[in-house]
Specification:
The complex is a heterodimer of chains A (321) and B (94). With 321 residues, chain A is α+β, with helices and mostly antiparallel strands. Helices cover 34% and strands 25% of the residues of chain A. Chain A has 9 helices and 13 strands. In chain A, the strands form 3 sheets. Chain A has a 9-stranded mixed sheet, sandwiched between helices. In chain A, strands 2-3 form a two-stranded antiparallel sheet. In chain A, strands 7-8 form a two-stranded antiparallel sheet. In chain A, strand 4 (86-90), helix 4 (102-112) and strand 5 (118-122) form a beta-alpha-beta unit. In chain A, helix 3 (62-77) packs across helix 4. The longest helix of chain A is centred in the C-terminal third of the chain and has 23 residues, at 212-234. With 94 residues, chain B is an all-alpha fold. Chain B has one domain: Non-ribosomal Peptide Synthetase Peptidyl Carrier Protein, Chain A, CATH 1.10.1200. Chain B is built from 3 helices and no strands. The chains are: A alpha+beta (321), B mainly alpha (94). The A-B interface holds A 1-3, 5, 167, 169-170, 172, 211-218, 220-221, 224-225, 252-253, 256, 259-260 and B 35, 41-43, 45-47, 49-50, 59-63, 65-67, 70.
Chain lengths: 321, 94
Amino acid sequence: MHERMMSIVPVSIPRIGIRGIAYHFDETAPIDTIPTLQADPELLAKFKKVGHERFAFSHVSITEQAVISARQTLDRAGMAAADIDAVVIGTSELRGWNRFPEKIGNEILLALGMNDILVVGVTIAGCANYASALRVARNMIAVDGYRNVLVIETNQVRGNLDRVVASSQTGAPAYILADGALSYIATTEAAEFSVLGMEQIVKPVDPAQADAATFITNNVGGFRHVTQCALDRAGVRREQITQVFFHNISLLLLRGLIDVTGFPLYKLFIDNVGRTSHVWGADNLIGLHDYCRAENPPSGALFMLLCQADTYYSAVVCQKL
Amino acid sequence: MRDASCDLYLAKLGQWLAEQGNRMGEIPPADVDLFEAGYIDSLGLIRLILFVETLRGAPVEGDLMRPQNFDSLHRIVQTFFADVAMPAGSACHA
């Protein structure tokens, strides 16, 4: 299969900003309390060795955690429900939701006091949902003329899904799924971050040939493509990036990612691997939020947000304003 | 027939695997499957790709980024070093 090389055609897309990043989960607990790891002390030890200590979880529903987060976003942005022109809801795990999917939007709008408003759902990009949702919001602003789009990503481990994910072939620890919601406002108005460039692709793998080595080479190609493309679109050089954000997964896997994308290891944000574990498509922006709160980087600082879901790869370059 | 450049790349790759691979101190035979024989695992593959790129002084192109191209020393040399730093008229038939 030939790699598709898409030319980057300059088009008149307005740069959008992000403001009011917020997130919610009810609490964190030691990974020792996860039944799968209680039953397998060897696997527990492996996860601890690659950085996992605690995981985030919620007692409230997938919509309630979304609403709590969204209210914080509105509060931080100094906005009311009436200021929001459209809503994008990302969620990739519905096995604990036994009603029609559109009810998610209904519940969230009711709780937020929003009415007569466009809602779009984003699902199949899985843990790369945030990049799809951001693109949808950006395009709503560019094409439909909206000013403020509320973006929510909300996920929980429910039903028969196991939080603990290890390689089916090698048994190596990969990640621990957490519960949580993230939200922000994509806007043409005053913002905290400007989105400079983004790219997302899918590089499908034939399940009959899906061994670990195939996924590794697929990952190398996928991450390199989206990273370079997002940098080119942003007009930014790799060495200008202040900090890189990815999912809160095994430190060994993170080391591989940073090696193939050409960023120095010290620029990778890893603080939340041990604190929250992998909050689906919310890790990147939770990391960006926490990093900026802790480090207060100067205006102009540039960030690379990478994410992956199976064979979906995405990269976003943004800048602190 | 092999030329000196091919042997040089085979030697460098073999030495790297002996130092960085999962069978420490062992230089793999040129035709052995590196994955099946346990010289390299999936995470080690990333380091092997980076080493190949360092050796050839250029990134591995997207359509060559497949595990089959890294499954033996011979295959790596055939795939990635056939046209690297070779004198005119000499090809690397490892």
